[in-house]
Amino acid sequence: MNRTRFAPDRGLSTRMVLTMFFIGLLYVVFVGVLLVVLGSAWPWIAVIAGGLFIAQFWFSDKIATFSMGAREVTPEEYPQLHGVIDRLCALADMPKPKVAVAQSDIPNAFATGRNADRAVICATTGLLRRLEAEELEGVLAHELSHVAHKDVVVMTIASFLGVLAGIITRIALWGGLSGRDSRDSNAVPIALIVTGVSVAVYAISFLLTRMLSRYRELSADRSAAQLTGRPSALASALTKVTGSMASIPTEDLRKAQPFNAFFFTPAIASKQGLANLLSTHPSLDKRLEQLGRISAELNR
């Protein structure tokens, strides 16, 4: 990561490297199987895979902000938001990212962008309306930590393979890649093989990104609490934001759920037990417990 005053996290760095290694290995195997099974259709595979990767990586900031209905705002429009980010960037000794606001009552925030120059920190109007200044500082420090640790980039790349597998599954089921007439006896087995491989790849990449996602949220909480020196403010923000979700219509929460992996808190939290293993975030209790330990350490 770039030299900033955010505490380095070797555990996060190790997990990002391992995730990228296994995702890359999975990607090579996936494309290799498709080439063997589909034969002459390999140019289409290359075009689809390359085009989607470039689009998702190069325009990740624009895709995320557009999908959330967010827009970049000036200091004149949102002086408090810019003021907090200015102070945190000075404290962390890092360049200031672009600042955006999404007109949504769902109290949340996220960071996106392929590098520090393209980074965007976005907060919703629902978050700005509900939080006090110190609580907002904790949330924004959490998001800036994602930029400093570069885990946003890793999550963007890691999630690409799952997206590609899903698209190729649909194309295979439609018979578009086989290049054969639908009456060809080989068409159905090929479609089934491609679908089976795609489902397996999607499942493995899903689990890898979920494990990384949960750890990076705990890492960002730690880094934000240590940078600001106020873990209690971040804990208060977590409690307030999570509690406010109950007042948001379920339909709105479900629309925002696809962005859970990049949110400060999930729009719809997973239940305890096995479902929690598939969640994008650790449980609220686990996050508060960690912040409580950091608070005790700082007090000592």
How would you characterize the overall build of this protein?
The chain has 300 residues and is mainly alpha-helical. The protein has one domain (10-299). The protein is built from 12 helices and 4 strands. The protein has helices spanning 10-38, 42-58, 60-67, 79-92, 125-130, 133-149, 151-174, 187-228, 231-244, 250-256, 274-277, 284-299, and strands spanning 70-72, 98-102, 109-112, 120-124. A 4-stranded mixed β-sheet has the order 1-2-4-3, with helices on both faces. α1 runs antiparallel to α8, α4 (79-92) packs across α6 (133-149) and α8 (187-228) packs parallel to α12 (284-299). The longest helix has 42 residues, at 187-228. The two termini are 29 Å apart. The model has no long low-confidence stretch (mean pLDDT 83). Its EC number is 3.4.24.-. The active site is at residue 143. One of its GO terms (cellular component) is plasma membrane. It is an enzyme of class 3 (hydrolase).
How many discrete structural domains?
1
How much of the residues is beta strand, in percent?
5-15%
Report Rg. Answer: 21 Å
Average pLDDT number:
83
What string, H for helix and E for strand, traces the elements in order? HHHEHEEEHHHHHHHH
Q: Provide the helix percentage.
A: 55-70%
Strand order of the largest sheet: 1-2-4-3
C-alpha end-to-end distance: 29 Å
Enumerate how many helices there are, as a single number: 12
Number of strands: 4
> Which term fits the overall shape?
elongated
Derived from helix and strand composition plus strand pairing, the structural class reads mainly alpha
Biggest sheet overview: 4 strands, mixed
Cofactor: Zn(2+)
Binding site for Zn(2+): 142, 146, 217
Membrane topology: Multi-pass membrane protein
Family: Belongs to the peptidase M48B family.
